[in-house]
Amino acid sequence: MAGQLVFLHLSDIHFHTWSGSAYDDNALLRETLLQDAGRVQEVLDVPARILITGDIGFRAAADEYVIARRWLEELCNKFSLPFTSVRCIPGNHDIDQGVIKKSKVLEDVHNKLRAIPPTKLSTEIRDYMEDPIARQIILTPLDEYNGFAAPLQCQVVPDSPTWYEDFILNDTSGLRLWGLNSTIVSDHLDNDYKTVVIGEYQLPTPKHGVVNIVMCHHPPDWWRDPDSVADGLEAHCRVQLFGHKHTQKLKKIDNTLVLTAGAVQPDKTERNWEPRYNWLALSVSGIGTNRKLCVQVFPRIWEPSTSAFVPDSNRCNGKDHRTELLVLEDWKPVDGDPESAKGISGDFASVDGQPATPEPAAAKEINPMEPARILTYRFFDLPHVTRIDIACELELYMDEDEGLQDFELFDRILRRAIERDLLARLWEEVEIRHGDGKYKSNPFEKKPS
């Protein structure tokens, strides 16, 4: 649909080490989803991004993420998209519980964060993350997830507890997609009520002319600090996407749409086994003080009798989708003429054919990030020794980096390259080592004035 920003939303995929084997009883389910997604795309449009609200794996084993990537690449291929079009956040099944069970220190940290008053959570977490020893220990259970997410720049590291990406809506205003982490305290006690820690430091910041959307695995009724954080999200975010509960809930709270997704691959022993996934299409209607965000949700549900995904018309008043209108602030394009907006398809810049995130006219301080994501993906596609060689050659590798996991190492390398104005050199060296000629131009090369 022209002029709409489209997302494909998955959650709780739960890849096992046996997924894809001869005894995989979810193989038909996944293949059918691939086919169904291709058909829905023909009606809507190619998704700008594929969003996953947690639980990519089941036990956070390395093999699970290898299998997950293989299937997600198939899904991306359905739309002729690169794997870098996937955005994700961790869920409780992306936490290596074995690491926690073997660590008295981690157990003590979790118990402390679950016991202190919610008003002190952000301060306590900040103190831990400023401690070079504590920060490594606390995030160790996310190592395998981070290895999967780092090429997508969705990893969780001490200096970047959240991520965001920017898009342009049809009236040239901005949309910022945020990935939050609800697993900093996640272990075998997650089944108890209100044990998950968020922290107000993860609240998105409001910007004039920019719509905030958030992704978070655990919904608010699992949080220890729901009042302050949930209130902040409702005030400054128009759409909230959650996972975890394996049942879908779609509700409008004041001026916010909250979607708790069903699971793509729920356990077949669950009482209400209902595989699900969703599509979202967003656009702005009206101008000035009459602007509204139009959110169309297309929920898809597995129908056992036909072994197919179909529209969940029961949740959409007999239709194949549900539409909600959310009031937006007064805002006008820079030239004051909303008719001059090109629409989503024409607004995206590109790097040799790869979609790039543009700079919304409404938010000049939002920086395009897609070239950096492509650089990250290409960097991680190189052998480890080659990556270190490039970093050393550009003097971006320091003595204190010794022993860091790859995902955190590159986070530091990228930050240093930005600080030292070496992004163009880093891109060039990565492309030379690939030697495949995939990208003819360097997006970080400064154009002559």
Structure report:
The protein has helices spanning 27-43, 62-78, 97-101, 104-115, 121-129, 132-139, 143-149, 226-236, 344-347, 370-380, 384-393, 406-419, 423-434; strands at residues 5-10, 49-53, 86-89, 163-168, 174-179, 210-216, 239-242, 249-253, 256-260, 276-285, 292-303, 308-311, 322-327, 350-351, 354-355. With 449 residues, the protein is of the alpha/beta class. It has 2 domains: 5-327, Purple Acid Phosphatase, chain A, domain 2; 361-434, no CATH class. The strands form 3 sheets. Strands 1, 2, 3, 10, 11, 12 and 13 form a 7-stranded mixed sheet that branches. Helix 1 (27-43) runs parallel beside helix 2 (62-78) and helix 11 (384-393) packs antiparallel against helix 13. The longest helix has 17 residues, at 27-43.
Characteristics of this structure?
globular, 2 domains, six-stranded mixed β-sheet, single chain, 449 residues, 19% strand, 31% helix, seven-stranded mixed β-sheet, Purple Acid Phosphatase, chain A, domain 2, 13 helices, alpha/beta
Average pLDDT rating: 88
- The appropriate CATH architecture of the largest domain is 4-Layer Sandwich
Assess the beta-strand content as a share of residues.
15-25%
Sheet/helix structural class: alpha/beta
Shape: globular
* CATH evolutionary superfamily of the largest domain: Metallo-dependent phosphatases
Helix percent reads: 25-40%
CATH topology-level name of the largest domain: Purple Acid Phosphatase, chain A, domain 2
How many distinct beta strands? Answer: 15
Spatial separation of the terminal alpha carbons: 38 Å
- The SSE order reads EHEHEHHHHHEEEHEEEEEEEHEEHHHH
What Rg is obtained from the alpha carbons, in whole angstroms? 22 Å
The CATH C-level class name of the largest domain: Alpha Beta
| pLDDT < 50 stretches | 336-368
The largest sheet, given as strand count, sense and whether it forms a barrel, is:
7 strands, mixed
